[in-house]
Structure formats: structure tokens, C-alpha cells
């Protein structure tokens, strides 16, 4: 059984059919990419699967359990995390604190323990700081361990968001254009990082416009056009699909 199984998923906004009867499956531990022209429905699809939007119809199953319509915090409790196309960094916090925020669901939120300032809470906070620092090292941000987020360059902030998402200890990670706005060297770092994440057993679903990155990374690729699925397969299969070439890659057939 696929780890993520989406069947006949649709979403309409009034008369606009943003996603139309999309079906796909993602195996555990793979990198699965979603591509398509601007307005194809990629981010809407992400928002449906991650609980931001409620499907008009269709089914979503995670590890065999029906999760369609669950709220984002409920999905987070099941091991789902994501990043967004636009930076969602708290600029008034340190880089380390931003990563720590990602681990909030693993913290003891007892009001009584906080009021009593129990040693266990202090010990857990110290452990959390070290975990956050280790994640920053994992994404290659060693030099920013003591930095404020507002002092970091854009490329480093994109990786900071990845570290924060990983702090939630996800089983399934959605990345919405992680290489957007990056130069070739920074994009290569994202390529390496996604590979590292997948090698730990985390399943990655990726929306990305950088075709070199997508073709290099992906085990399977889903292609959308006007909210509809027009192709699915390996990079080689998608690259040579005439409908994909016409709709997305820009050549005539």
C-alpha cells in the first residue's frame, strides 16, 4: 500500500476548478515531484493534502488512514510537515529559535510545570536547543548558530525553513519551491539537502520549477496542467511525454 494515496481529488472555488480528479500515490522514502505551468494547481494540491484547504471531493490516505479534511495541526501530529513558497521566517528571533519553534508539538505544554519552573522543563529546553543546533548543522548552517534571522542571506533562510520543518520530526515533508530565487550554487545545496533528508527515511513531496533539480532528484513526477493530471512517471518518462513537452516544456508536437 502506498504511503500517501490520493484518489480523485478535486477543489473548486466558485466556478473555478483549481484541481480536477487528481489521483497519485507516493511510496515511502521516495522523492516525488509535482510540476506544471503557473496556475496549474500545484500549490492548491499541496494545500489540500496538508489540510489548509478542504477537498470538494476525493480521498487522501496517509499510511492507510483516511486524512482528507483534517486540519494542519492534526496532520502535524501524524508526522506531516511543509515549507511554503514564500519565506515564513520569524525575523525578530534568532536562527536557533526559529528551528526550535518547529519542535513545538514535541514539547511539554503543562501550565503547572511552567509556573513551578520544574527542572525537567529547563532540561528539555536545553536538549531542544542542542537538537535545533544539530539540525542547523545538518542543513549546512553551522556558521549561523548564533545569528539573528534578519542577518542571514536569502539562501540560508531557505535552508533554515527546512531545518525548522525537520524539527517537527516528520515522516512526510512537503516542500513548496525550495529553490525559488536561489542561484545555481545555492540550488545545488538544496539538491544535496533533499537527498540527505530522503536518505533518513523521510518521504519528500516537492513542487519546483527548476527542471534540472526535479529531473535529478525525483523518483517519480506528477505533471499538472489547468488542474488536471496529464502525466506521471519517472523523469525519463515525463521528459519524453509529448503532452508534457507541449504543455510545460514549451515545444510543439
Question: What is this entry, summarized?
Answer:
The chain has 253 residues and is an alpha/beta fold. 38% of the residues lie in helices and 23% in strands.
Name the CATH superfamily classification. Answer: P-loop containing nucleotide triphosphate hydrolases
Kindly report the average pLDDT value. 89
Q: Report the CATH C-level class.
A: Alpha Beta
- Determine the CATH topology: Rossmann fold
What is the overall silhouette? globular
Q: What's the β-strand tally?
A: 10
Count of helix runs: 10
CA radius of gyration is 19 Å
Largest sheet: 6 strands, mixed
CATH architecture: 3-Layer(aba) Sandwich
Alpha-beta content class: alpha/beta
Q: Helicity level, as a percent range?
A: 25-40%
**Gap between N and C termini:** 36 Å
Compressed to H and E, one letter per element, the order equals EEEHEEHEHHHHEHEHEEHH
Q: Low-confidence stretches at least 5 residues in length (pLDDT < 50)?
A: none
Strand order of the largest sheet: 6-7-8-3-9-10
Main attributes of the structure:
253 residues; alpha/beta; Rossmann fold; 6-stranded mixed beta sheet; 10 helices; 38% helix; 23% strand; globular
